[in-house]
Write a structure and sequence with these properties.
Length: 150
């Protein structure tokens, strides 16, 4: 099962905030096959922005961090179709455009799960379910993706 990662998940995986959530993110990543992980291109841009503006990493260092994620996993492109579908999400479900791009890219890449702390936990759209990996009550799909791949 393909799994997409949102920006906040990568921020925790980089161990930049909240030690407990960072450990959870690392554990989830450890239990999902690398060839099942998809990172929407929008997420890579957002991660770079967080690293430079919020964490205050030098841009060159932030670039290498982002390139490392890009090299390790499948990257889902932001195409014209993804933009159109993101606008549908914004109009029909009140998603922020940027979140819509992430969810639409995940769908286009064949993902069944999008790990995100910020989007609507449990929301399913065109076969992709948003799962908050840090929720007090874990979504059944979280167990499935972390157990089924090994």
């Amino acid at each position: 099962m393909r799994v997409a990662l949102d920006t906040n998940f990568l921020v925790y995986a980089e161990r930049l905030q909240d030690a407990s959530k960072s450990a959870q993110a690392a554990d989830v990543l450890e239990h999902i096959a690398a060839d099942s992980i998809v990172i929407p291109a929008q997420v890579l841009g957002e991660l770079h922005n967080v690293l430079v503006r919020k964490v205050r990493k030098p841009a060159a260092e932030a670039r290498w961090t982002v390139l490392d994620w890009q090299d390790r996993f499948i990257v889902a492109a932001t195409t014209e179709r993804v933009i159109a579908r993101a606008m549908d999400l914004a109009a029909d479900h009140r998603f922020a455009t940027w979140d819509g791009i992430i969810l639409a890219a995940a769908s286009e890449a064949g993902c069944r799960v999008l790990l995100s702390e910020d989007m609507q936990h449990g929301f399913t759209w065109v076969g992709v379910t948003v799962v908050n990996p840090f929720a007090a009550t874990p979504h059944p799909l979280l167990f499935r993706i972390t157990q089924a791949e090994h």
